[in-house]
Amino acid sequence: MADGEFRSGFVCFVGRPNTGKSTLTNALVGQKIAITSSRPQTTRHTIRGIVHREHTQLILVDTPGLHRPRTLLGQRLNDLVRDTYSEVDVITLCIPADEKIGPGDKWIVQQIKQMAPKTTLLGVVTKIDKVSRDQIGEQLLALSNLLGPECDVVPVSAVKGEQIEVLIEVIASKMPEGPAFYPDGELTDEPEETLMAELIREAALEGVRDELPHSLAVVIEEVLPYEQNEEMLDVHAILYVERPSQKSIVIGKGGARLKEVGTNARHQIEKILGTRIYLNLHVKVAKDWQRDPKQLGKLGF
Ligand SMILES: Nc1nc2c(ncn2[C@@H]2O[C@H](COP(=O)(O)OP(=O)(O)OP(=O)(O)O)[C@@H](O)[C@H]2O)c(=O)[nH]1
Ligand SMILES: [Mg+2]
């Protein structure tokens, strides 16, 4: 890049659920702004992260994983991702190094080429720390065949921090010239309440199985100054589940699980906000909210 030339723009990360999009977003931003988990379909809204470098500013848009939807929530999440195609300069498809490219990936590429035929498409092989060098090479070739010869492919490991700066340079090179969109130092445009709700959901996801991760939603009810200590915040949150049986699981014997979730979430929130908090968690049942348009509306979908 020539001296003095500043490039800026938007790039979204898309891919099947659980392919490492949010972990990569956090690694590129250099701070946790998106929650991650080993369960598919963790991300439920588009999250903007901002990367600042001397000659570039990249606005990353992390999106929910794309899959064949089984609930109204699933449909809404897919629509949300499709909406972002038209708003970005570069679309980056994430494929994990340790999984074969399949029909789900081909379907996503078809959709992108149909809906955003002129947008620059880039391929990323994620989680390269999990496989051998030979396997990385094979996956890069397979991804290149899937996308076509005009698209670059880049291998990365977000967990090991490998190739992160290389990926930033490759994305920056595809951006138009233009000024920064966000002030220096701003890492996300997520409201603090959303960050708090997400960190609570992440803590609650830890260790639960089957359908429960999908049934969890978190809403921040109130944030007040803490009465006994003005420097602390008093945060009231509700964890919604879909059935009474799930409520008992989340609360645990004598409230033990909920307490642990509260402690873990509190530590994470305090780290990110830099403020000490008092966290009140309540669990409520919102019957089948994933399929109910009214409930979905109330929960912000
Ligand atoms: N070993 C390894 N694991 C990774 C890497 N990146 C992500 N993971 C793991 O893969 C799992 C899924 O990561 P996420 O970042 O939540 O995936 P996602 O694509 O955002 O998932 P959805 O939001 O559900 O679509 C988590 O358990 C991560 O720790 C990586 O570079 N190396
Ligand atoms: Mg995610």
Automatic annotation (TrEMBL):
Ranges where the record places region G3: 62-65
Protein's membrane topology = Peripheral membrane protein
Q: Where does GTP bind?
A: 15-22, 62-66, 126-129
Q: Which GO terms describe its molecular function?
A: GTP binding; GTPase activity; ribosomal small subunit binding; small ribosomal subunit rRNA binding
Keyword terms, alphabetized: Cell membrane, Cell wall, Cytoplasm, GTP-binding, Membrane, Nucleotide-binding, Ribosome biogenesis, RNA-binding, rRNA-binding, Secreted
Q: Name one GO biological process term.
A: ribosomal small subunit assembly
What would be one Gene Ontology cellular-component term for the protein? plasma membrane
State where the protein is found. Cytoplasm; Cell membrane
> Which residue stretches belong to region G5?
156-158
**Annotated region (G2), positions in chain:** 41-45
Concerning Gene3D superfamilies, the annotation shows: 3.30.300.20, P-loop containing nucleotide triphosphate hydrolases
**What family does this belong to?**
Belongs to the TRAFAC class TrmE-Era-EngA-EngB-Septin-like GTPase superfamily. Era GTPase family.
Subunit-level organization: Monomer.
Q: What is this protein called?
A: GTPase Era
Source species, please?
Nocardia colli
